[in-house]
Amino acid sequence: MKTKKPHFSLNEPLRHTDHARPKTRREFISQGFMTGGATVAGGMLGMFSSPDKAFADLAADIDLLRADPDICDLKTAGKDKIPFICFDLAGGANFAGSNVLVGGPDGQENFLSTAGYSKLGLPGDRVPGGVDPNGGDFVNRELGLAFHSQSALLAGIFDKFPSSFRANVNGAVIPARSDNDTGNNPHNPMYAIAQNGDYSYGGLLNLIGSRSSESGGNSMPGGLVLRPGLLDVAMRPTKVDRASDVTGLVDTGKLVGLLNKADAVRVMESIQRISDMKLAATNTNAADNAADEKLKEQVRCAYVQSAHLTDQFADDSEGGTGVSPILDPLQDTDIIGPIFSLDEATNDGEFRKTAAIMKMVVQGFAAAGTVTMGGYDYHTGDRETGERRDFRAGQCMGACLAYAAAVGVPLMLYAFSDGSVASNGMPDNSTLGDGKGQWTGDNSSTAASFFLVYNPGFKPQLLSGGSLGLTEAQHQQLGHMRMDASVETASAYPAANSVDRLVETVVLNYMALHGETNQFSLLNHSLGNTSEALDRQTAFAPIVSGTIVRP
Fold first, then answer.
1. What is the C-alpha separation between 227 and 222, in angstroms, rounded?
2. Angle made by CA atoms 450, 452, 456, in degrees to the nearest 5
3. Which domain holds residue 252?
4. What sign results for the dihedral spanned by CA atoms 322, 324, 328, 330?
5. Same-domain check for residues 377 and 498
6. What does the alpha-carbon distance between residue 54 and residue 311 come to, in Å, rounded to a whole number?
7. Considering 325, 343, 368, which residue would you say is the last residue of a domain?
8. Which residues fall within 8 angstroms of residue 253, CB to CB, at 6 or more apart?
9. What does the alpha-carbon distance between residue 233 and residue 247 come to, in Å, rounded to a whole number?
């Protein structure tokens, strides 16, 4: 007789008898045959202690062009919006119940039925609110957002995120259905985050992601109703695979090395001035004037940018590569050592891409980033496989929070997956299974997404009261589940049964953190036309006023 394999190892592809063989890139990622690409571009300019002074070496006339919004408006740290990183766990990961608690209409701790928790993989003797023989009630509230105390995802977060910073984190969960095992869910909010309200640009790139796709992740870009033409080609995410690709984002050419850095910058400035003189002397037909002026602006910007990049990133030290080490996440002492070992950040694909994404986004040189992690279609008839993968996803999330804390800037971290899984209640008694329910099938009705917000100044404060009289607990859970652990789709929360509305809800909450709910009200959204409707779907009071101030 054929012996059933007890579990899958951490990086092993998932082979399902009830799934066709994977054919598309998304199917390969969700079942773990591909890791989700090594995401992006390692981090830029994080070592500048005073970004506003970063252009001091540029000549005054070039610096004016650099800052002119009609020419280039190159940024030192984007528009100083709150850094935003999302985790796209491809395949249908479990978030609700066994990881983040989801409850009834009164919030996370309006506990579900024992049968409902069984569907979410929790045995009857470990339901939230019960008596834990080791102390407590199976609820962990250290991050504000309530997790199950035995959550593998939470254990992974705590593995990388020091306890000294946890009091400054809070979060919210959004019970919301989405289709299983498909990249066609418009889950990814990066375009909407970057292009709504006051435009949020990165200082070097706009959007970054672990996949070479329209969204930079596994799922499609979402929230397109927010602004016509949201899929701006100029905003398409950049994919970078390893640290050498990060430094490769900036090419200072052969000039640095032949000359010292200061002289190389002067040469490029002179080239720009000569080019500008030539452009000014070029005659234009009136009919072609607008297009011609646009082209001239692009040429001017290209030369200004060359001088700017050389000024900022060139390295003329003896034995150097020509590119400054400040671009390299592997040389960031806030990452290597405190968060990841050099071996982890070099040889573990998930850690390597997380280090690169968080470096770039937290430092403000990308507006938003997506980390795609593959192999989360883990309804393999055991529990150990999912626990291993949840733990590593948690480690990557905890690393992002830890890095934001080390740099001293806020961070909004958003986690989503295409669909979810459910258990038939059969326990997995392996060491890591620990008697929890086996994941035995896809189930879109148990799906949820969640976000965490770190703020260095104070813990993000949940809203309460207002015209609707909602409690903090009701602002921490935007929607609810029925007692049988299925999403209540008939609630007053549009996100519950619409992935596009889910993305709009995330954008609303991102803008609310900046005190920009009034700007969201002006957008073509579908979350309701009253202030009460938006208040219901908002978790936190503002933590910054318009922009953040970087250390």
1. 11
2. 170
3. 59-75+246-325
4. positive
5. yes
6. 9
7. 325
8. none
9. 23
Q: Read off the amino acid at residue 546.
A: G
33-37, 159-163, 243-247: range with highest mean pLDDT: 159-163
**In-domain check, residue 289:** yes
Question: Closest Cα to residue 397, out of 439, 350, 363?
Answer: 350
Q: Whole-angstrom distance between the N-terminal and C-terminal Cα of the chain?
A: 64
3-class DSSP state for residue 470? strand
Whether the Cβ atoms of residue 196 and residue 505 lie closer than 8 Å to each other: no
- pLDDT of amino acid 541: 97
Q: Do 460 and 144 meet the contact criterion of CB atoms below 8 Å apart?
A: yes
Q: How far apart are CA 421 and CA 245, in angstroms?
A: 36
**Higher per-residue confidence, 545 vs 259:** 545
Q: CA-to-CA distance for 313 and 76, rounded, in angstroms?
A: 12
H or E element in which residue 89 lies? strand 84-89
Asked whether residue 481 falls in the same domain as residue 529, the answer is yes
Written as one string, the DSSP assignment of 153-170 is: HHHHHHHHS-GGGGGGEE
Q: What would the two tokens of residue 355 be?
A: 């280090």
Contact of 220 with 502, CB cutoff 8 Å? no
pLDDT interval class at 471 (50, 70, 90): very high
Residue 34 lies in a domain: yes
Say if strands 368-373 and 84-89 run parallel, antiparallel, or are unpaired: parallel
Q: What percentage of the chain exceeds 70 in pLDDT?
A: 66
Q: Which residues are bridge partners to 361 per DSSP?
A: none
Name the residue type at position 395: Q
DSSP alpha helices (H): ranges in 254-411? 255-258, 261-280, 289-313, 342-347, 349-362, 384-407
Distance between CA atoms of 128 and 439, rounded to whole angstroms? Answer: 19
**Angstrom distance (rounded) from CA 110 to CA 480:** 9
Q: How many CB atoms lie within 10 A of CB 296?
A: 18
Res 246 pLDDT > 90: no
Report if residue 483 sits inside a domain: yes
State how far the Cα of 414 lies from the Cα of 506, in Å rounded to an integer.
Answer: 8
Domain boundary at 257, 291, 325, which? 325
Please state whether beta strands 368-373 and 207-209 pair in parallel, antiparallel, or not at all (unpaired): parallel
Cα–Cα distance for residue pair 370/235, rounded to 1 Å: 13
Other CB atoms within 10 Å distance of the CB of residue 535 = 18
Shared domain for 146 and 203, answered yes or no, is yes
Same domain, 279 and 187: no
The verdict on residue 477 lying in a domain is yes
C-alpha span between 368 and 157 (Å, rounded): 20
How many structural domains are present in the chain? Answer: 2
Do 343 and 273 belong together in one domain? Answer: no
Same domain, 262 and 398: no
